[in-house]
Amino acid sequence: MTSIDPTTLSPDDLAPMLRAWASGMFSSEAAVELLIAHDVWPRRRDFLFTLVDAVDDGWGPRGSVVPMAAIDWDRVEAFLVSAPASRSEISVLRCAASLAGAAVNVPLRDATAALDETNSALVLNAIAHRCGWHERGTSQLINGTLGECGTDVQGVPAQVTRPYRPSPRGGAA
Which of 26, 66, 105, 108 could bridge to 60 as Cys pair (CB 3.0-4.6 Å)? Predict the structure, then answer.
C-alpha cells in the first residue's frame, strides 16, 4: 500500500476516501457522514495529521482498487485533550466517535449539551443512518416534543405508537 499524507488532502478529496472506507457499515458511514456534513474537522490539519490514515490503493467494491482514508476513532479522546476547538466542534467529534464504536469519556447528555440547532440536526441524522432509516425509507419530523405526532417531509403523518409517559419506576410507562 502506498500511504498518502492526509494533511495534503482537501475536504473534497478526503470525503470520497472516507466514504469508501466506511461503506457498508452503518455505524462507520454515520460517523463519517456526520464529520463531512459538519465540515470542520476534515479541514483541520491537526485532525488529519493525528487521526487520519490515507492510502491510494485500498480495496473497493468488487475488488477494485480505490483511494481510502480511515479515522482512528479510538484516539479521539486523547486528541481532544489538546485540540483547540469550540464546545460544539468537540461535541460533534465525540458523537461521531461514539457512533463509530469508540469509547468516549462523556455521557451523551454532556456530549450533546453544546450542540446548536444545526449541529443537533446533523447528529440526529447520523443516528437515524446508524439505525438504518435510509434502508427502510423512514423519515420523521423531529421537533423535540416527545409523544406528539408530526409530519414527515412529504406531509404524511408521522407514526407514533403511543405517547411517551415517564413511569414512576423510571423509564417509559
Answer: 66
Those residues with Cβ within 8 angstroms of residue 29's Cβ, 6 or more apart along the chain or in another chain: 19, 22, 23, 129
Question: Comparing C-alpha atoms, which of 32, 41, 54, 170 is closest to residue 101?
Answer: 32
Q: Which residues in the chain belong to E strands, given as ranges?
A: 3-4, 52-59, 65-71
Interatomic CA distance for residues 9 and 67, integer angstroms = 12
Please say whether the beta carbons of 31 and 100 come within 8 A: yes
Residues 6 or more apart whose CB falls under 8 angstroms from that of 163 comprise 146, 147, 148
Q: Which three cell numbers stand for residue 166?
A: 415517564
129-148: string of b/e by CB count within 10 Å (b at 16+)?
A: bbeeebeeeeebeeeeeeee
Alpha-carbon distance of 120 to 126, in angstroms, equals 10
pTM above 0.85, yes or no: no
Query: How many helical (H) and strand (E) elements, i.e. helices and strands, does the chain have?
Result: 8, 3
Domain boundaries, the chain: 3-136
Give the tens place of pLDDT for each residue, 108-155. 999 999 999 999 999 999 999 999 988 888 888 777 876 655 545 555
